[in-house]
Fold this protein.
Amino acid sequence: MTDTLAFVGGGNMAEALISGLLRQRRMVPEQISVSDIQPDRLAYLASGFGVHTSRDTADLVRRAATVVLAVKPQGIREVLDEIRPAMDRNPLIISIAAGVSLATLAAGLPSGSRIIRAMPNTPALVGRGVTVICRGDAVTEDDVAVAEAVLGAAGRVWRVDETAMDAVTAISGSGPAYVFYLMEAMLDAAERMGLSPETAREWVLDTVEGAAVLCRETGRHPETLRQQVTSKGGTTAAALDVMQEESVNDHLVTAILAAQQRARELAEQNA
Ligand SMILES: NC(=O)c1ccc[n+]([C@@H]2O[C@H](COP(=O)([O-])OP(=O)(O)OC[C@H]3O[C@@H](n4cnc5c(N)ncnc54)[C@H](OP(=O)(O)O)[C@@H]3O)[C@@H](O)[C@H]2O)c1
């Protein structure tokens, strides 16, 4: 797929991608290298996956065809400073740092650098992520295919224009937290009703997963499916009436728009 892939930052996201790439036999360990400032992380990744590890980021970047920047957004400037002098081979750069724009990345790298910005979400840790990517000017169609193959190891990959990235962050990036919030409420209610937490957890998990699969497989809008399970005067209607009275939907929409606004602010701070 690509001859050599280097990760700068060997944290949770890098591990999710490495594990998926090897499990799905998209790459072999000899093709993958990782640099991190935490010796423990490097030891863990080397012993767990057999990948090459080093604290010398510049050296890895010099030898890599593709480089994934997988450090926290606060650390991205330092990493750009480190890799800039090592970009002789002009490797494809894929940044997964949340809220760091293509312009910010390009400003820290030599002109003509091929840069893809990606926004994954946490289900990537179990191979069920949504990753949305946007491409810089110098990127080729082959580069996008490489990025899709690397990031696709942790779930599905979608292409968008960068202008959609703050909205993407609010929907799929932060989205798992909204679902967890609903699950927490269902578990709190289960406890109030005296159900065993362990059993309630299984029911909630199967219910959330089942509802998503039902929605996908029927191709129906969630509103249609909701109406189908809501008979007038019934139990579901009793719950939904309260949600309606409390304007839960409006509050959730307002909350998700706040996430988009925060993504904008963070992108400006990182510029
Ligand atoms: N986790 C998510 O759900 C998620 C979702 C979307 C996007 N992302 C993005 O993915 C990126 C990685 O997230 P993560 O959860 O994998 O982070 P993480 O677990 O903190 O991993 C980052 C690793 O990079 C190390 N590091 C810091 N500076 C470095 C440097 N200059 N050179 C080499 N390594 C360095 C960190 O060490 P220290 O701990 O010592 O700093 C840490 O071990 C972030 O930018 C995040 O915004 C994550």
The radius of gyration is 21 Å. The first strand starts at residue 5 and ends at 8.
